[in-house]
Amino acid sequence: MKTLAIIGSQWGDEGKGKITDLLAAKCDLVVRYQGGNNAGHTIIVEGKKTVLHLIPSGILHPHCMSLVGHGVVFDPRAFSQELKTVTDAGAKITPENLRLSRGASVITTYHRILDGVREAQGPIKIGTTGKGIGPAYVDKVARRGLKLGDLTNLDVIKAKLKTSLQEKESLFKNLYQAEYPSVDQEANELFEFGKKLAPFLDDTFALIDKALMAGKKVMYEGAQGVLLDIDWGSYPFVTSSSTSAGGIYTGAGCPGSSVEEVLGITKAYTTRVGEGPFPTELFEHIGEDIQTKGGEFGATTGRKRRCGWLDLPLLKYSVKASNLTSIALTKVDVLANMGKLKVCVAYEIDGKQYDMASPGLDLSKVKPVYEEVSGFEDDFTGDTLSSSLKSYIEKIEKHVGIPVGILAFGPERHQIKFIKDYF
Ligand code: GDP
Ligand code: IMO
Ligand code: MG
């Protein structure tokens, strides 16, 4: 296998960072293709924690080239901070191993302000990360956004910011009463960042094409999860990009047929940060137990993650919506020693049962149908799994129709079992 995609199959935070880091050991190129610094991908190596927001999760492997593709919305300030934090912690990051697409869209201060005031003043509260993601994608789609390649020319920055600010100025003044920097102030700051970014800028499409033609091993690292996809997710409680596999083809710029394996990263239970429907959410103590044991706090915002049982109709939908070919089941250790477990096997609505979610089913109205399953007490020290854990895995495979190829039972690199071979 030469090409593999990492896709979150739930509402994000499934452990994409850990799995990407592990597989990057065997591959040549890791590409982020959508989202921005709303992502928080955690890697833990011998107790040392690295949280990546914009930098791809292959970066801790010196041989591996990391690319940020043109589908990403990129905040130069956030990147500078992340670059400093990660290099201060000992990683080597230079234009030798990290390249940024000139076509990635820039998140400006105006976008961050808009994100904040819209969340604060409504009418809908999405519970965004506040990083300016949605407003930046709006400007991209409205054809008035800045691209990273623009940041090396002060006149271009000023001209484009003026266009971008034209309507926002009225919103800031009249609707939101928000303070905002002048075009000159914002342009000068972005230009300074542009000077620092310049050595990293490149044509990432051409680099991916060259790697594919040379038979190199390429991994596409998704952010968020299928249920947060702008088209496939629980709209409007979603992010503003294509988080499912379709985003790779537009955001990285590779031919669809070139992705051989689409690995759906799946938590053994379900979590969600932010607002929106969550059929299997647990409100009683067991939800708290999972939250505490799983350390379920957002890696970007620190918010408590809502927790619930594994939702198979949701997972089956993700498999279809994103053409997943296998599953990496993570955080299995969190469910160990918790007694009997429940798994949602269907949704009930208007007297009918459905074994798969779909955009036509209102997730806020469905009633989860649970099966109680035996708990497991595996300590994952040996090679064998208990029969209860095996049947938990088989239940998933049978319901969604694809195999579990990886089992993760802790945050460290060695806490992993490969059932299937990748790369
Ligand atoms: P991502 O956004 O999908 O990369 O996931 P996050 O990094 O936001 O959240 C996953 C959290 O679970 C991180 O704190 C990881 O260190 C941790 N983690 C990943 N895999 C496992 C696992 O198998 N078991 C446990 N206990 N923790 C894990
Ligand atoms: P990773 O890559 C979990 C959620 C936010 C909010 C919604 C919209 O670490 O899995 P946005 O700031 O994107 O406009 O927020 O999406 N969200 C995430 N939830 N993991 C993420 O990323 C997320 N990125 C965004 O909480 O509900
Ligand atoms: Mg995360």
Compute the average pLDDT: 96
Q: What coarse outline follows from CA principal-axis ratios? A: globular
Bound molecules: guanosine-5'-diphosphate, 6-O-phosphoryl inosine monophosphate, magnesium ion
The CATH C-level class name of the largest domain: Alpha Beta
Number of strands: 20
Number of domains in the coordinates? 3
Strand content: 15-25%
**Radius of gyration of CA atoms, rounded to a whole number:** 21 Å
> In CATH terms, what is the architecture of the largest domain?
Alpha-Beta Complex
Largest sheet descriptor: 10 strands, mixed
CATH topological fold name of the largest domain? Adenylosuccinate Synthetase, Chain A, domain 3
CATH superfamily of the largest domain: Adenylosuccinate Synthetase, subunit A, domain 3
Low-confidence stretches: none
Task: Kindly state the percentage of residues in helix.
Answer: 25-40%
Strand order of the largest sheet: 9-7-5-2-10-1-11-15-19-20
What does this molecule look like?
This protein has 423 residues and is an alpha/beta fold. The chain has three domains: 3-101 and 210-261, Adenylosuccinate Synthetase, subunit A, domain 1 (Adenylosuccinate Synthetase, Chain A, domain 1); 105-197, Adenylosuccinate Synthetase, subunit A, domain 2 (Orthogonal Bundle), CATH 1.10.300; 265-418, Adenylosuccinate Synthetase, Chain A, domain 3 (Alpha-Beta Complex), CATH 3.90.170. Helices cover 32% and strands 20% of the residues. α3 crosses α4 and α5 (154-175) packs across α6. The chain is globular, with a radius of gyration of 21 Å. Bound molecules: guanosine-5'-diphosphate, 6-O-phosphoryl inosine monophosphate and magnesium ion (MG). Magnesium ion (MG) binds at residues 12-13, 39-41, 299.
